[in-house]
Please model this.
Amino acid sequence: MNAEDFEDLFYLPLSQAAFVEFEDLQEHLIGLPVPQSEDDVWSYIWGNGTYTSQRLYKLVFANTDAHPAFGWIWKAKCTPRIKFFAWLVLVDRLNTKAMLRRCHCNTQDDDLCVLCSQGTVEDIQHLFFTCTFARRCWQALNIGMNSLAYCPA
Model:
């Protein structure tokens, strides 16, 4: 509010629409009285005014419904890095070649699976369930494919 020139507050080039909104905001702010004797005060939406990260989290995510698989992962009795890995799989953020290509992080010429010779795109579904190498790994662990349920978020 006390800035000499509002343009100094913005460093990125603004689009034409954003610049029009910026000018509207500038006109609105110029008309507001700014009491010089008072300090800025933050107040919270909840009652007693004490901030905790738990309260903020509950406020932000109060109306969010998560798939039950996320609860199973975070309540599992295993190391945090395994929980994190499982979470990456569920939210489709594991660094497979297909995901890296989507993010324009191409590190190789193609996005085909290097573990098998099927010529299939390396995505989570293939890497864990349809790849012949993965199937042999599950068999070696004596885990049948019927007991594995892929549940994308």
